[in-house]
Design brief:
Elements (H helix, E strand, L loop, with lengths): L1 H8 L7 H24 L3 E6 L4 E4 L3 H4 L23 H13 L4 E8 L5 E13 L2 E11 L1 H16 L2 H35 L7 H29 L7 E3 L1 H18 L2 E6 L7 E3 L1 H20 L7 E10 L2 E8 L6 H6 L15 H11 L3 E7 L3 E9 L13
Parallel strand pairs: 7-9
Antiparallel strand pairs: 1-2, 1-5, 3-4, 4-5, 6-8, 9-10, 10-12, 11-12
């Protein structure tokens, strides 16, 4: 149709009024068809010129992005698109693409709706070409929230499979307290029976109280076991958002540094050379790092040899994976401790619950990541956290291919 219109327009002076009207009708029909196609696309669409001035959009875009000015408002076509966006992060992304002349790009963002819910967006930018000349950008905004939620749900279903082992461990843990309760209750019952047979003369008060004290202690122990079990199996309530882990780590280091410095421990941080955003929960991510740092503090303080302690966090990216290496030169761990470090109820601390590292493991798995440990007794320990970097579509076809 485009070629036909171009050829006819070159002979416009020779056309009759009826032919011109027919041509206008054809152009109108084609324009309506193109408009229908744009409105039928499930993704939000923005078409901008080289100055990022809005040229075209579809209706659904306003349900994907928050605008200060409606896209159909006359003011929207007089300023760059980042000036009409309410979300500062997305506006900054468009401004960066303009400043650096970026034409091909895909980025992931999280936005908060007016109702307070979190939505995940993937924004893809491709060049708008005409006769081999760059005329602007085509921007597609996809809502990938359901896919993200499905991935999280699948992961949680996998975690539920571990409940069998936890339940078996719980059954083993409660056998001893129940056995102790049974024995001491039987002793009390025998004493009371003997007392009735002996003119209701009760046994020594201390004798009964000792048995009751043991029963009460074991009941309290059972209650703690049940509460710990519920804590261990309860799903992690994670609100996943795209966050820069380096900034979160820097904030944590500022928080822990005074305590570490007081104990003559040098805190070192190596940030990732490339800024990446990961799909994590900020509070839970902080809990992981805080738990690891406190374990390192305890390990360094308990080391027999004197000298300055070292606590390090190093970040890097390789093969679409984000690596966070947390290490110290503390007392280290033996092979038995390494093998059980993430198991519920296992602890080497006198007052430990044995759930700290279990929660660290659960949180990292909730982030679709992995964590491993390497340690040498007397030399130190290293934890390696691996988190996936959100994939970006880098295989964008050049226009015309």
């Amino acid at each position: 149709m485009r070629g036909y219109v171009k050829r006819v327009s070159q002979k416009l002076e020779k056309l009759s009024k009826e032919q011109v009207l027919n041509l206008l009708d054809d152009i109108f029909d084609e324009n309506e068809s193109l408009y229908s196609i744009l409105e039928s696309i499930s993704a939000g669409l923005l078409v901008v010129d080289n100055n990022f001035i809005l040229q075209q959009s579809n209706t659904i875009i306003e349900s994907r992005l928050n605008f200060n000015i409606h896209t159909d408002d006359k003011q929207a076509i007089n300023v760059p698109v980042w000036n009409i966006l309410a979300d500062e992060e997305i506006a900054g992304y468009f401004k960066k693409c303009f400043d650096k002349g970026i034409t091909n790009s895909t980025e992931d963002f999280t936005v908060t709706t007016s109702g307070g819910s979190i939505r995940f967006l993937t924004i893809t930018m491709t060049p708008l070409m005409h006769d081999g000349i760059l005329k602007g950008r085509i921007i597609l905004v996809r809502d990938v929230t359901e896919k993200k939620n499905q991935d999280v749900l699948l992961h949680r279903m996998e975690n539920l499979a571990n409940l069998t082992n936890l339940a078996a461990g719980m059954a083993h843990e409660i056998k001893n307290p129940l056995g102790a309760i049974s024995i001491h209750m039987q002793l009390i019952q025998k004493a009371l029976k003997k007392a009735r047979e002996n003119e209701n003369i009760l046994p020594d008060k201390k004798f009964v109280e000792e048995h009751i004290d043991v029963v009460n202690d074991e009941v309290e122990h059972l209650n703690k076991l049940v509460m710990d079990f519920l804590f261990a199996v309860r799903p992690v309530n994670a609100t996943l958002e795209l966050k820069d882990p380096s900034k979160l780590i820097e904030n944590l280091i500022d928080f822990i540094k005074p305590e570490f410095s007081k104990n003559n421990i040098d805190v070192q941080f190596t940030a990732c050379l490339k800024t990446e955003k990961l799909l994590i929960d900020e509070k839970l991510f902080r809990e992981v790092l805080l738990n690891l740092s406190q374990n390192s503090l305890a390990a360094i303080k308990s080391k027999e040899s004197l000298g300055a302690g070292i606590f390090k966090i190093e970040c890097s990216v390789k093969d679409n994976k984000y690596y966070i290496v947390v290490s110290d030169n503390g007392c280290g761990m033996n092979s038995q401790t390494i093998a059980k470090i993430f198991e519920p109820y296992y602890t080497t601390k006198a007052n430990g619950t044995g759930l700290g590292m279990t929660m660290v493991y659960k949180i990292i798995k909730e982030f679709s990541g992995d964590i491993s440990v390497d340690s040498i007794e007397g030399e130190g320990t290293t934890f390696v956290i691996t988190l996936p970097v959100p994939q970006k579509d880098k295989k964008l076809l050049e226009m015309g291919e």
